[in-house]
Amino acid sequence: MFPNQRPRRLRSHPQLRRMVRETILMTSDLIYPLFAVPGEGFAKEVRSMPGVFQLSVDKIVEEAKEVYDLGIPGIILFGIPEDKDTDATGAWHDCGIVQKAATAVKQAVPDLIVIADTCLCEYTSHGHCGYLEVGDLSGRVLNDPTLELLKKTAVSQAQAGADIIAPSGMMDGFVQAIRAGLDAAGFEDTPIMSYAAKYASAYYGPFRDAADSAPQFGDRRTYQMDPGNAREAIKEIELDIAEGADMLMVKPALAYMDIIWRVKEATNLPVAAYNVSGEYSMVKAAALNDWIDEQRVVMETLTGFKRAGADMILTYHAKDAARWLGA
Ligand code: PBG
Ligand code: ZN
């Protein structure tokens, strides 16, 4: 032991620990995901995600007010349409569910930032994130035809009032295509938060319950990234930056802390971490069994994301965390 080096000196009092704390989680770091469904007065808890609900637009608006009052700066909207088809019509139609929800929320709570998830998987009959040749059961998504649909989707979301467009389908060139579409429609000032490094993950399982978006055949490994790859994440973010992304996301978060760190080191753009559905469900299941202290586990985990480099954290724990932080 070196007697002049005693790190415990700085841990002896709560106020001293507070003074030297390096990472402080704040409510302003959080983004809350919401699932919009057709209907009115409708709220249905997601089986695998206790405390998370599919909500009709009127209920989404109530929720948005609560989120805003808690001091959370933004929400991200996902939609479950009435009908699904091969063209993902529900994604880009002006009367689509996310479009309706975005308009209603911006009208009721104009100062809440509304992020629109821009993907096709909730809207295609086959559940893939892009366009497939009709009758193709291989699950080989066609990249460039998908870009056209994503462009249309992003523009209609911006027209409906979305403040940020968040493409999540991992198609090559999607940031550039969406940027061009937004600019041509007069939305030069609408930022793009790209799901830049999104891995093919089993942790999305509960989300696919929530969004009814599991692929009917095949899987997403021809477009989402292989969990073993880290350098490839840097390649993905470099491309997205070149294409005009304003913010970058790493997803999932827990098993990819090193990727959050590497991305943060590699760019000066804001970095978001998506604390995904399966990560939430695991914590909830353990907490409901009284196996862990939910509050402490959640706050430690969210602080970990921030320490790893996340400027923003998309999390289903956002409302609880905001309450625990004391809005
Ligand atoms: C759609 C999308 C998914 C998630 C966000 N956007 C699911 C998927 O890729 O299958 C997952 C979010 C979560 O698990 O919480 N592209
Ligand atoms: Zn998708």
UniProtKB/TrEMBL annotation:
Q: Pathway it acts in?
A: Porphyrin-containing compound metabolism; protoporphyrin-IX biosynthesis; coproporphyrinogen-III from 5-aminolevulinate: step 1/4
Q: Which SMART domains match?
A: ALAD (SM01004)
Q: What is its EC number?
A: 4.2.1.24
User: Which residues bind 5-aminolevulinate 1 per the record?
Assistant: R208, R220
Q: Name one GO biological process term.
A: protoporphyrinogen IX biosynthetic process
UniProt-annotated catalytic positions: K198 (schiff-base intermediate with substrate), K251 (schiff-base intermediate with substrate)
Entry-linked PROSITE patterns: D_ALA_DEHYDRATASE
Q: Which Pfam families match?
A: ALAD
Checking InterPro entries in the record gives: ALAD, ALAD_AS, Aldolase_TIM
Q: Which reaction does it catalyse?
A: 2 5-aminolevulinate = porphobilinogen + 2 H2O + H(+)
Q: Which UniProt keywords apply?
A: Heme biosynthesis, Lyase, Magnesium, Metal-binding, Porphyrin biosynthesis, Zinc
Quote the cellular component terms of the Gene Ontology held in the record. Answer: cytosol
Which residues take part in binding Mg(2+)?
A: E236
MF term (GO), any:
porphobilinogen synthase activity
Q: For binding 5-aminolevulinate 2, which residues are annotated in this chain's numbering?
A: S277, Y316
Function summary? Catalyzes an early step in the biosynthesis of tetrapyrroles. Binds two molecules of 5-aminolevulinate per subunit, each at a distinct site, and catalyzes their condensation to form porphobilinogen.
Subunit relationships: Homooctamer.
Its family remark reads: Belongs to the ALAD family.
Name of the featured protein: Delta-aminolevulinic acid dehydratase
